[in-house]
Specification:
With 133 residues, this protein is mainly alpha-helical. It has five helices and two strands; from the N terminus they run αβαααβα.
Length: 133
């Protein structure tokens, strides 16, 4: 259950990010109708979760000294790289995320993280959980 809620939260945060950040867009597969668009956002959120869990963990472990040195600011760069990786994977699969440049990736990753956090704060009390949603 937690996985599905987190997936929907990330998909909604991604949708809002594409509305707020002009350099980040999602292109639906098929005819681009409502169902295709929703499925595309869910698929991109799923790919982002996989990339974040696998590649993101490795990068964070390797870059730990940089996290300490920059007081965590390097996380913006790491999240932008992960967003660009997701864009490459999803584009290769024929749907998905489009990030114009690394700069837009940094802005998009920051907005995505903030929105995901805010939506998580709203959803957590509704689900009745004390921990992460």
């Amino acid at each position: 259950m937690r996985f599905l809620v987190r997936l929907v939260i990330n998909a909604v945060a991604l949708w809002l990010t594409t509305l707020l950040v002009s350099g980040v867009a999602v292109h639906a597969f098929g005819s681009g109708g409502t169902v295709e668009t929703v499925l595309t956002y869910l698929l991109v959120a799923f790919v982002f979760g996989l990339v974040n869990a696998v590649i993101g963990t490795v990068i964070r472990v390797v870059a730990f000294p940089l996290y300490v040195l920059t007081l965590g600011l390097v996380s913006l760069v790491v999240n932008a790289v992960l967003l660009l990786i997701v864009a490459g994977i999803s584009t290769g699969l024929g749907f998905g995320l489009d990030v114009r440049s690394f700069g837009w990736g940094v802005v998009g990753a920051f907005v995505l993280a903030v929105l995901g956090w805010l939506i998580g704060l709203v959803v957590r009390p509704v689900l009745g959980g004390r921990g992460r949603a």
